[in-house]
Amino acid sequence: MAEKSFETTSQVCCSTGSESLPILASPMESPLRKVLSRISGFVPSWGKKTAPPGRRIFHRDVEQDEFQNGTAHCLSSYYSVFVARLAIMVMLAILIGLLTVLTWHFTRVYTTKSLNTLAYGLRYELLQRPILRMWNILNSTSEITTAQVKLSEYVIRRYSKPTNQAEQIELYQMMKDITWALFASRKALNAITINYRNGFVQAFHRDHRSNNTFYIYSDLANYSISDTGSYDNKSQSSRQGWNDQFIHGNVSAIWYRQPLDPLTGEKIGKSSQIPPEDLINIAGPSQVPDGVASWHVAVSKYTDSPLLSAALPVWDASNKSIVAVVGVTTALYSVGQLMKELVEVHSGYIYLTSQEGYLLATSTNTPLLNNTAKGPKLMMAANSEDRVIRMGAQWLQKTYGNKFPPGHVVHVEKANLGGQHYYIDSFFLNLKRLPIVGVIIIPRKYIMGKVEERALKTLVILISASVCILAIGCVCILILTNGVSKEMKLRAELISHLDARRRAEASSNYKSQFLANMSHELRTPMAAVIGLLDILICDDCLTNEQYAMVTQIRKCSTALLRLLNNILDLSKVESGKLVLEEAEFDLGRELEGLVDMFSVQCINHNVETVLDLSDDIPKVVRGDSARVVQVFANLISNSIKFTTSGHIILRGWCENPNVSSDSGKFSPDQKKPMSALKTKLKHGNHMKKVSKKDNKMILWFEVDDTGCGIDPSKWESVFESFEQADPSTTRTHGGTGLGLCIVRTLVNKMGGEIKVVKKNGQGTLMRLFLLLSTPADGLEQQRQIDFAKHSVAVILALHGSMGRLIMSKWLSKNGVPTLEASEWNELTQILRELFHARTTNSGFDTHYSLAKPLRSKVQTLQDMKKLVYIIVVDLGLLDLSTEIWKEQLNFLDKFSGQVKFAWMLNHDTSNAIKMELRKKGHILMVNKPLYKAKMLHILEAVIKESYVEPQNRSPNGTKGTSKQGDSHECLEIDSTQFETCSSDDSDISEMTGANSVSSVGIREQLKEGTILKSGPPTLRNCLVEFTRLGLEVNNLRTEEDQCNGRPKFHDTKDVKCENPNSSEQPLVRSNVKDRDNSYTTNKAASEQKSLEGLRLLLAEDTPVLQRVATIMLEKMGAVVVAVGDGAQAVEALNCELDGDENRTNRLQTEICDSPPYDLILMDCQMPMMDGYEATKAIRKSEERTGWHVPIVALTAHAMSSDKEKCLKVGMDAYLTKPIDYKLMVSTILSLTKRSTKG
Amino acid sequence: MDLVQLQRQLVDYRTSLYHEGFLDEQFTQLKELQDENNPDFVVEVVSLFFEDSERLLNELSKALEQQVIDFKRIDAHVHQFKGSSSSIGAQRVQKLCIVFRNFCEAQNVEGCLKCLQQVKHEYSIVKTKLESMFQLERQILNAGGSVPV
C-alpha cells in the first residue's frame, strides 16, 4: 500500500511537474515576451539614453542589424549580456509561475476537499431530516393504527355477540367515541376509518384545507347482524367480494357526512348524504389480506398531497377472523412542509419518491398529483412540474436507469442540470411495503459557489500579480543589465581608444625617434660631401667652369644640409630629445652678428636690415645661444624671402615696467598685448624683483618687414609644420615651411610665445618674447659713456632711411646731436653749411639747399663751436661706377681736419677702394649695416683719438695714424668676425663666407674691448698701443691657422683676434711665445702642423681607430699618447702628474701650473672603464691640482642627449665617429687655446 | 707583367672595390694619412683590423654558443667591430654590424647567429679583397714602380 501510494504521489508529482513546466514555459513565456517586448518598445521613449542593445534581446532582426554595424569584438559581450538577461528572466518567470501555481493549488485543493466533506454532511443531514419525519409519520400512523386496532378489539370483544340492534348501535357508538378520541388526539391524522365486517363504515375525516372535521358513516339499514355469521363463514372465500362490495359495489349503501366541531367532536351540523365519489379512502379487508399491517400511498381529492394510509385488521377474540379493518390516513403534507422549511434555509431541492418513482413529497410548491379523468393520481418524479426536480430525476434515470447502486445511494457532486451544476444525493429508506427514495439536489453554486468564485478571483489576482512582478522584475533586470552592458560597451570603447591612442603615439614617437636616430646617418654623408667639395674647391687644377659648378654643388649641398637640419631639429624637438643649453652669451653680439650676416643677403635684395635693440637689454643672458640665434635667423631669412624692397627691422626690448622711454616708439595698440602679457608673466617679474641671483627676464622681440605680408586668417597656421601662407610661394621663394614651425617650438621651449601682430602698413610683424635668465652681474654692464660730455656731433650720411632714423634717434637720446643725409648732394650741402668758411672751392653743384628743419639743426650745431664732427658715410653714396668717387673723396678730404670720417663699407667693397681710403687716412671703416655697437665703436675710437692725437701728432704723425689704422682695422675685422661667431650652423657660416671659429675667441676679444673701453683712455693709452701691436701680430698667425683650405674668403685682410694674452697678463711673455709659434714657421708648415706642440692623450679601445686617429693627429704635429681604455687613461694622466719634471721642456714657465696633456680624446664606449667613468675620475683627480684638461668625447651617436651626457660628466666637447678631420682639428684648437689662455 | 698594366689593374681593382661598396671614403682618408713617415700605414692599420676582427669574431662565436647568452657583451663586441670596420672604411661589414646590433638589442639569438655568419662572410670577402690589393701593390713596388693614388 505504502509503495503504491508513494508511486501515485510520485506520479502526481511527476505529472504536475511535467505539466506545470510546459504550461509555464509556453503560455507564461509568450505573454511575458509580449509584455516585455511592449515594455522594450516604450523603453526608449522614457529613457532617451536607453541604448539600442536593450532592444536586442527581443528583436532579433534589429539585433542583427545592429550587430552588423557594431564592431566585431563587442559581439561576444553583447551575446553574453543577451544570454544572461534571458536566463535571468526565464528563471524569474519559472519561479514566479511555480509560486503562483502552488499557492493556487494548495488553497483550492484543501478548501475544496474540506468543503466537499462539509457539503456532504450538510446534504446528508438535510435529507436525513425529512426522512426522519417521514419515519415519524409512519411510526405515529402505525402506532395510532395499532392503538385503534387494540381499542377496537377490546370494544368488539365486549360486545362480541350483539344480539340486538340496540347492542349493535351501542357498539358502534362506543367505537365512534373511541375512534374520535384517538382521532382528536392526533391532529396530523387525515382520517381514521373502521370498516366492519358487515360493511358498516365509521370514519372521521379532517379536511385540512377547509379545516373541517367530518364524521362519515354508512347507513345502518343495509347491514344486519345476521350477516355477520355468513360473513364469518365465507370470510376466507368471499373476502375479495366483500371488499369490492364494500368499496365500489355497495352502491346501495348510503353515505352520510356529519360535520363536527374539530375540538369537541360535537355535531355542529346536520349530516348530509354524500355521493360515493366524494367518499374518502376507506381501508377495506382487501388491504390486509395477510392480516398484517399494510401501507400504501393514496390520493384523495381533498388534499393535493399524497396520503399515507395504513390498514390493520381487527381480529375477533378467538383471533381467527377479522372483525373490522382499521385504516389510518396521514397526509404527507408535513413532510413537504419540513422540506420546504429546510430548503428555505438551505437552498436546493429535496424530494421523496416511492421506489417506482412516484413523487411523495417535494420541497417545492408544485402539485404532486396529476388530475386525470379518473381523479388525482400520483405523479412520477420525472414528470414533475418543477424543472430542477424533473431534470434531476431524468438525469438519475439516464445515468443509472434501473440499475441503481445497492441501497439506492448515489452521491454525485457535479451533475449538469440545465447549464448548472448540482450536487445530487439520493438515499433509500426501506419501509415495509413502502420503500422510499429521498433525493436532494443542491446547486453547487450554493456550497461551492463562493469558493469557486474566490478561487477564480484568487487565481486571477495571483496571475496578475505574478505577471506584474515578472514584468517589473524583467524591467529591473533590463535596466540593470542595460547599465552593465552600457558600461561594458563604454569600457570596451575606452580601451580601444586608449589602445589606438597608444599606438598612434607610439608610431608618432617611432617616427621622431627614427628621424632623431637618423641624424647621424644623414648628416655624416652630407658632411662628407661638403668636406670633399671644399677639398675640390681648394684644388688648383680646376677650370673656371668646373670651379663654378663645384661652388654650385657646394651651395646645393649646403642647402640640403640646412633642410636636413631643419627636419632633424623638428623631429628632435618632437621626440623630446632637444635639450636646451644653459650658458651665458652676449645676446646683443649674437644678434648683431646675425644682422651683419643677413645684411649681406639684403644688400643684394635692396632691402635694409636694421637692428634696433633698446639699451635696457641685458648684455649677457643665460640660454642656448645657438637656438636663440636659430630663431632669429629663421625669422629674418623668412622675412628676407618675402621682402623685395624696404627694410627688415629686428627690434628688441626688455619687459620692464620702469622703462618707459623706449616704449615710446611703439604705438599704443602695440603696447596692449604687452600689458596683457605682463599680468601673465607677473610671476617672472616677481622673481626678478625678489632674487637678484637668477633674474628671469622677459625679452621682447619684433621682426618687422615690409614684405608681402600674411593674411590674418593664416596668422596661426603659418607656425604649423609644412604650412605656408601661400602655397604658390614655394615656387617663387622656395622653402619647406619648416622654419617657422621650428621657431615656434624653440620659442615655446624657451618659455616664450610668438605670434603675428597686426601692423600698420605693408608687411608682417612677428612679435615674440623669450624668458631668459640673466646672470646677477649682467645688469651692471648697462653703463653708457656720456657722449654729451665729449661734445661730439654725428652726421649720418646713409642710404637706408630706417636705419638712419633709428640710429639718429638713439644718438640724440644719448645726447649726441645728429644730422642726416640720404645722398651725396645733401651731405655736401650740410658740410658746406657747417664749414662754409673753409670750403673755398667746390666742384659740385650747390643748388641743393637744405630743408628748413635741417638748416636750423645745422645752425644750432654751428653754435656749439667745440664739437667734434663724425661723419658716417655710406660708401654707396659715392659714385663708384665711374672714377668720380675719387674726386668725391678729395672733396671730403678737405674737411678731414675738422671732421672724422667713418666709412660704411659693403661686404663686397673692393680692395682698391679700401686701399684708397686708407691712403687718404680714412681709417675708420665699418661694414654695413650700422647698429649701436658699431656706432659705439666709432664714437669711442674718435673720442680716444681726439685724446691721443695731441700726444702722438708731434713726434711722428704718420706713424701714429698708421697705428691707429691698424687698430681700426681691427675694428673693421671685428665686425666680420661677428658674422662668424654668431653663426653656429655650418650653412650660415658658409653663406657669410666666414670660417667657423668658436665664440670663445670672440668673447675674449669682447672682454678686452670692454675693458679697454671702460678704463680711462688717457691712462691706458700707452698700454693699448702695445697691446694692439701684439694683437696684430698674433692675429696674423691665427689667420694663417684658420686659412685651412679657404684662402678665397680672405681677400679682405682677415685678422683673428684670438689674443692669448688678456690685458692682465704679462704682455711680453705672450708676445714672445706667439712669435715662437707663428713667425718661425712658414705658412705651409703651419697649415699642416696646426697642432704642433700639443700633447694629446687618446683613449680608444679599437686598435684600428686608435691607430688611425694617432696618425691623423701626429700628422698635424701633435704628440699623441694612445691608451686602450678609460682606466689606462686615468692612470696615464696620474703618472704624468707625478712625473711632472720629466715632461717636455715646452713652455717651461708653465710647468708648475699646467696639466700634463693639453687635451684628451676619449672614446665613450670602452671596456674596463668607459669614457664617462674615466672622465669623472679625471675630473675628480683634477680637483686637487686645479687644472682642467679638456676632454673631447668620441661617440658613435650624434644625439643631443648623448652630448648632454658627455657634457654632464665633465667633457668639454664631443666628436662623432668616424672622425671628421677638420672638425677635430678645429675643436682641438679651440679647446687648447682656451686652456692655455685660461 | 708590365708595370703600367699592373698599375692600371690596381687602380681598376680599387675602383671596383669602391663601386661594389666594400670600401668607402674612410679608406681614402686612411690612404691620405699614409706618407713617407708611415709608408706602410694602410697595411699596418688593415692588418691591425684583421687581427682585431678575428679576435672579435672568435669572441662573438663563443659568446653565441653559450647557454646563457650575454647580449650586452655581444653588443659591446659588435660595437667595437663596427667602429674598427668603419675606421678602415669596410662599409659593408659596418652596415651588417648595425643590423647585428639591432638583433642584439632585440635579443634575437637566431638573427644574431645569422648576422654573425653574414659578418664573417663579408669580413672574409673584404679580407681577401684587401689582401689581393696589397698583393698587387707589393708587386708594383717590387717591380720598382710607385703605387698610383
Automatic annotation (TrEMBL), chain A:
UniProt keyword annotation of Kinase present: yes
Residue stretches of biased makeup (Basic and acidic residues): 1048-1057
Biological source species: Hibiscus trionum (Flower of an hour)
Pfam families for the chain: HATPase_c, HisKA, Response_reg
Region (Disordered): 1044-1086
Main enzyme class: transferase
Residues annotated with 4-aspartylphosphate modification: 1163
Name of protein: histidine kinase
E.C. designation(s): 2.7.13.3
TM region positions: 82-104, 458-480
Span of domain Histidine kinase: 517-774
Alphabetized CDD domains for the sequence: HisKA, REC_hyHK_CKI1_RcsC-like
TrEMBL record, chain B:
Pfam families noted in UniProt: Hpt
GO CC aspect terms: cytosol; nucleus
Coiled coil, from the record: none
Phosphohistidine carried by residues: 79
Source domain of life: Eukaryota
Domain-related comment: Histidine-containing phosphotransfer domain (HPt) contains an active histidine that mediates the phosphotransfer.
Protein name listed in UniProt: Histidine-containing phosphotransfer protein
